[in-house]
Specification:
Length: 288
């Protein structure tokens, strides 16, 4: 009788363990589904009602394997659609500095800019490879920086000095660089998200209106790129929403993070992912 009771007790204990393990697995599955749904919802693409003229891609700065995807996106626009103007979440003078580097090929210029962004999320080696590949394979690319004057006391001052050395102090480029520096000082003092989105949009439109080809691509921090949203920490429309108001329903949006995730999911559907494939997809080397 005692043996029977002990067997029953052991059976009950094992049954409880199995139920507990099942409950844990159920909770984990639900959390995975919730995360997948929230990611899909948060990063759902936007396709305009009219022909796309401004293709915006939202990035997470500093995520190393995303830069390869961003290069692929630009190379496709460049070679297959004939685009030449790439808008970036950089100050005017930093994009102009990179344009000078594109023409002159002085690697020290790229390194100086890379030194300027030290301390930011974007300060990772692959960002230099991103620009080097553009210079090599898309040499007619023109960068347009439309952000407020971040790092004005380093990259801003250096660009002004460069123009002065070239005898170009009395030029539109010099004036716009000074204007961007002033925007940076206002942003530094006020940290007003609505001001930044407004300025991003105004600077974008200024550059855009000067172009002969009105089809362009832009890469910005994701918070600036969805035409359906307001500023991340403000109450007014974000940059993309303002562009839509000004230019019409011609602004598309996709999140680079979401695009990479979809591609990696498809790759895993095709075959079991080994360590190499998971790393290439930006995933952990082993299953979690």
């Amino acid at each position: 009788m005692m043996k029977y009771l002990l067997r029953e007790a052991a059976g009950d204990k094992n049954s409880k363990k199995k139920k507990a393990a099942g409950a844990v697995l159920l909770v984990i599955s639900i959390l995975i589904l919730i995360h997948a749904w929230s990611t899909r919802s948060r990063y759902s693409p936007y396709e305009p009602g009219e022909e796309t003229k401004i293709s915006l891609y939202g990035e997470v700065p500093g995520v190393e394997h995303y830069y390869e995807k961003e290069y692929e996106l630009w190379e496709e626009k460049y070679s297959e659609e004939g685009l030449r103007d790439l808008f970036l979440g950089l100050p005017y003078y930093e994009a102009q500095w990179l344009n000078l580097w594109m023409k002159e090929g002085d690697e020290e210029m790229l390194e100086q800019w890379y030194g300027d962004i030290e301390g930011t999320l974007a300060h990772v080696e692959p960002i230099k490879d991103f620009y080097r590949k553009i210079r090599e394979n898309c040499p007619e690319t023109v960068f347009h920086g439309t952000d407020v004057g971040l790092r004005y006391d380093s990259s801003g001052v250096r660009y002004l000095k460069k123009l002065e050395e070239r005898g170009e102090a009395d030029t539109e480029a010099y004036r716009l660089a000074e204007e961007c520096i002033e925007q940076g000082k206002i942003w530094e003092e006020e940290k007003d998200a609505d001001y930044r989105e407004k300025t991003l949009a105004e600077n974008f439109i200024r550059e855009y209106d000067q172009l002969e080809n009105d089809h362009v691509m832009g890469i910005y921090a994701d918070a600036h790129c969805d035409p359906r949203k307001n500023a991340a920490k403000g109450k007014e429309p974000c940059m993309a929403a303002r562009l839509k108001e000004r230019c019409g329903d011609v602004v598309s949006y996709q999140a680079v993070e979401y695009m990479v995730k979809i591609e990696s999911d498809k790759m895993l559907e095709r075959k079991p992912a080994g360590k190499k494939e998971r790393l290439e997809a930006g995933m952990p080397a082993t299953e979690m």
